[in-house]
Amino acid sequence: MTAITAQEDQTPFGAVLLYAFCGIAAFLSLLATAFSHDRLFQLQGWIYTGAFVLAGAAMTIGMTAGWFRAAPDRYEDGVIRAGVIATMFWGVIGMSVGVIIACQLTWPNIFYVPSQGWLNFGRLRPLHTSAVIFAFGGNALIATSFWVVQRTCRARLAGGIWPWFVFWGYQLFIVSAAVGYLSGVTQSREYAEPEWFTDIWLTVIWVAYLLIFLGTLWKRKEPHIYVANWFYLAFIVTIAMLHIVNNLAMPVSLLNHKSYSAFSGVQDALVQWWYGHNAVGFFLTAGFLAIMYYFVPKRIDRPIYSYRLSIVHFWALIFIYIWAGPHHLHYTALPQWTQTLGMTFSIMLWMPSWGGMINGLMTLSGAWDKLRTDPVLRMMVVALAFYGMATFEGPVMSITRGQRAQPLHRLGHRPRPFRRARLGRVHHLRRGLLPGALALEEEGDVVHAPDRVALLDRDHRHPSLHHRHVGLRDHGGPDVARVHAAGLPRQFLHRDRFGQARREHRPDGRWPDVPLRHADHGLQHLADDPHARRDKGRSRGPGARPLRLRGGIGARIMWKHHAKLERNSLILLIGILVVVAIGGLIEISPLFYLESTIEKVEGMRPYTPLELAGRDVYIREGCYLCHSQMIRPLRDEVERYGHYSLAAESMYDHPFQWGSKRNGPDLARVGGKYSDDWHRQHLTDPRALVPESTMPPYAFLADKDLDYHDMVERLAAQQKVGVPYTKDQVAHAIDDLEAQADPFDARGTALKKRYGAKIAQRDFDGRPDRITDMDALIAYLQMVGTLVDFRSYHAEAPENQR
User: Fold this and answer.
1) Which of 191, 280, 305, 629 has a Cα-to-Cα distance from 122 of 20 to 30 A?
2) 3-class DSSP state of 453
3) Closest Cα to residue 802, out of 268, 334, 339?
4) Could you tell me where the beta strands, DSSP code E, fall in 318-436?
């Protein structure tokens, strides 16, 4: 990276391969769109077709103009700049939508448009969370990871043009998911709402991202892998594992937008929150800790406080975090042993979390004065402080197990379902690290003119606007980095006529000793470094004895072997996979073979076609975001709603609908509680019946004909994921749906024979001439909680014990 080499005339093979990929993808998207009869699938198909056509056109122009013949001795920073722009763009979008939905909950009479259902809270809320977490945060993590891995490996990003494929492919995923939320394409899994085809596309993007990151590590010129890259690698690998397992689903058909999750009820709830908790843990914790481990030391020109603490912090965090997912499901139908494991590991998570915070804050020892002049560093410190407070609150609020601890469930966000206090914690957590992560221009601003003298100190002329660094973006960056990280903040550098960074003498006339970078790439002085210049904050002379490792023989062996691990990216990858997979396997696997997981309760049956269609409308409109279907075994809940929820009641729910909070009342026992007319009025104008309600109006459901042309395929898909529909039920799905919505339909006799004599057969929306979405939704609501006869149910019976 210290000289410019001649560029090749031919187009790189990677660009040709990507061009072919875009052409094939455009053809397949157009084909699927043309043959699909599903309007929502067609909408998504046109988005993908247009994106691939535009990509192909751009690549045609680019290959003709020679844009893709990149110099191998320069860092790939163009994609990073694009990532920073995308981060800020999606941040504005996501936070603006957050303001809108907050206004909807505050002034529902003003901020709801009854005729425009796509503007309701249930459609916008997933758009807000996904835009802020995955669009805003995701672009920041991808951009910073590309920046850090190049600088710490002294190697250009692997893959040639493929990092651009990851960037633009990720933007396509964001657009596809956002349009899906607004149009009702969702699988109702918190933090995993996109449907199956969008999930597949994200998997393709994420695999390419992983290969690029690993490829850069494999071709690195540094012997060791710096700690920030451990966290980035754990973030990428674990998110891939979580995404694939949690989004296993059966599509209704390959040309239909709808799918049903592979798991149901208790199993689905644990898999979802195993994903949900750890998506936050590895996306918003591990990834941002990687940002901290690189940008905080670089910002203050000091090595990270403790190299060994970073090792303990990393492995303890990724091992313990994966176990804590069940703390989102306290006091639910989840087995108690699983809830106890989640609570226990949540408390244990306190220690590695604070280890990372301490490592970051103690790095500022002796440099706290810089907070007065460096606003970016100030935000980083605020972020670390909030991280410490948030990781203190979480474990404490997890202690809700046992009779003596029950009153604690009222104090905060634990259990996560049905609590709102967690919102402040989530909104403040880790945000302050972004200014440093996004200020990449400050980290790489290089003066290219020869014979110019640059300081490794800040430019204090405009401290409120920017503080320029001598660069890491230039081909001379690695030479500067050695000096910059070696504890010589006022070392002068000289650029010769070739633009090379050269050492210059200090004002006292002595030539400084610029040590080679070591295992931690100069951001941390190893204990055996004879050139170490810091010992507990004191300078050491040239004749000082090297620092010695503390601890016994076992500790020395551990550090020695871990150094070998840092040199091999493949072994590091395998180690991360093994460590993060242990917790999930131990917690989730037993739920699929323990008979005690599901109670054997009489009366449970699969949904009728009309009820299933209504449940799909319920999911489409985002009702699960405000209403839970899980009554906890607590006295106040049982007295208000009825008998606590049983695991068996959700055994046919693909996906489960326990909910994660309550803006409105629990609906687990809503069936038969109100008349059909009450439901119609409530859905049309909620505040006419409940003046304090913040619920959106759903009058448009009464004017929208129910689309049930694919009902046979829907039941068949449910059958494939384990719902015991018979061949007769699947074959007569459309007949049964039409019969249930018409009290005079002669096919009602066959319907009741297939599903039971208690099936409600009537006109639910008061309009007998048509079957609408309102018909289906009310049919579903009137069924919820009515299948089990609790007058004859005995919880003490052996067969009903969890």
Assistant:
1) 280
2) strand
3) 334
4) none
Distance CA 534, CA 582 (A): 39
Both tokens of residue 719? 């059958």
Assess contact for 286 and 223: CB atoms under 8 A: no
Residue tagged 């609908």 (tokens): 657
Q: What is the dihedral of CA 209, 212, 213, 217, to 10 degrees?
A: 170
**Interacting residues of 569 by C-beta distance below 8 A, sequence separation 6+:** 214, 217, 218, 225, 233
Q: How far is CA 641 from CA 635, 676, 759, in A?
A: 10, 19, 23
DSSP letter for 523, please: S
For residue 655, whether the previous peptide bond is cis, meaning omega lies within 30 degrees of 0, is yes
- Conformation bin of residue 240: beta by default, left when phi > 0, alpha when psi is -120 to 50: alpha
According to DSSP, residue 648 is labeled G
Tell me what pLDDT residue 374 has.
83
Mean per-residue pLDDT pooled into runs of 10, the chain (802 residues):
46 85 95 95 96 93 77 84 94 94 92 91 94 94 94 90 95 96 93 95 96 93 89 95 95 96 94 91 89 89 86 92 90 89 89 89 86 85 86 76 40 43 46 48 32 27 36 36 38 42 44 36 33 36 36 55 82 92 90 74 91 96 93 88 91 92 91 94 93 93 93 96 94 95 91 92 90 96 91 60 46
Model pLDDT, residue 723: 95
Which pTM value belongs to this model? 0.82
Beta bridge partners of 645: none
C-alpha distances out from residue 353 to 168, 292, 318, 466, 581, Å? 33, 13, 10, 31, 20
Q: Which residues of 355-378 are buried (b: 16+ CB within 10 A; e: fewer)?
A: bbbbbbbebbeeeeebeeebbbbe
Q: What is the CA radius of gyration of the chain?
A: 29
As a whole number of angstroms, the distance between CA 527 and CA 366 comes to 20
Half-sphere exposure of 526 (CA within 13 A, CB side): 15
Q: Which residue has the tokens 């040590």?
A: 515
- Largest CA-CA distance found in the chain, in angstroms, rounded: 103
